[in-house]
Amino acid sequence: MRGFVERLALLFTDWGFPRMAARVLFALMTAEAPGLTATELAERLDASAAAISGAVRYLGQLGFVVREPVPGSRRDLYRLRDHTWYAGTTTAVQFYDLIISAADEVLGSVGGPQSLVGERVSEMRDFFAFVRSRVPALLDEWQATRQIQSGR
Amino acid sequence: MRGFVERLALLFTDWGFPRMAARVLFALMTAEAPGLTATELAERLDASAAAISGAVRYLGQLGFVVREPVPGSRRDLYRLRDHTWYAGTTTAVQFYDLIISAADEVLGSVGGPQSLVGERVSEMRDFFAFVRSRVPALLDEWQATRQIQSGR
DNA sequence: CACTTGTTTCACTACTTTGTGAAATCTCTG
DNA sequence: CAGAGATTTCACAAAGTAGTGAAACAAGTG
């Protein structure tokens, strides 16, 4: 099981995910409990408290993880957000927006798809804009599938 | 324009793309000519020939770039492949497959979505499988759009 | 078949990233 | 409001990556 964590973490790392953040993500995923404390994460991943701290902050910013202060206790519980992957996709989409706007700027100074450069850049721009535009519908469809499966 | 190259390259770098490869990609994209030689790339990007060599090899493996030996000349021309982004997506999909199969293995030993762990892992698995399954249709749709626009 | 030009390989350097340990900070408990 | 457990911050060490220069290698040209 620990192997699963490392394996998936490695995959995500190749994708630009910080290594420890990826490990924490999958450690939470494979936890029998609903959430884990920073200390528990440190033990399981055999990492320092500091490394965990940085990782959960990162994951929090991306919306993968929520922190839940446990009332009457000093330790906070970190939990995967519901619909983790759904939320993650939403974040990823911002990347597309950045590409699109960068391309738009260039097209402004190059003058549209007349030149070779304009043609290439606008194809890229259009491609990302196209994919990006389809994402919301895709996520909706996914949501719908889920609800049917869970019988609600 | 050089700024555009650096800016987009940086974006892609955040996404796990090797930096020089990203630079080369966008240098080719913003070239007035159909392709560039290794030497030209080195000049424009102000990098060593060695760095260019590694980058174009990488891009070649990913299918972003083709190398065209120029007949009667010692220098090879590197060109962006047509439908660059379309092809790139195809490559990216393999990443999904790896996740899916890793998840499947775990589910085998955890026994489906009965436990908390099983539930989380199978949600992830299903999500990636869902998105992955929609990609081909999405790309088809994109192709269709293109053909209409270019009037063929 | 030597010469010249263009590309690749390889050992090494510089840099960035990752993670640690120790100290500081925070917050609940008594 | 002092004490204890938990988390965060910070300076630094270790590791991994990217890029360079020089040498090897290929391929045209005279």
| SS element count, helices of chain A | 6
Are there runs of chain A of 5+ residues with pLDDT below 50, and where? none
The overall average pLDDT of chain A, rounded, is 90
Major protein interface: A-B, 43 and 42 residues
Shape of chain A: elongated
Span from first to last CA of chain A? 31 Å
Task: Give the H and E element order of chain A.
Answer: HHEHHEEHH
Radius of gyration of chain A: 20 Å
Query: What kind of assembly state do the chains in view correspond to?
Result: homodimer
Query: Structural class, from helix and strand content of chain A?
Result: mainly alpha
How much helix is in the residues of chain A?
Answer: 55-70%
**What is the strand arrangement across the widest sheet of chain A?**
1-3-2
**How does the major sheet of chain A shape up?**
3 strands, antiparallel
Topology:
Two copies of one chain form a homodimer.
Chain A: H1 2-14, H2 19-29, E1 36-37, H3 38-45, H4 49-61, E2 65-69, E3 76-80, H5 84-110, H6 116-149
Antiparallel strand pairs in A: 1-3, 2-3
Helix pairs in contact in A: 1-2, 2-4, 3-4, 5-6
The first copy, chain A, binds a DNA duplex (30 and 30 nucleotides) through α4.
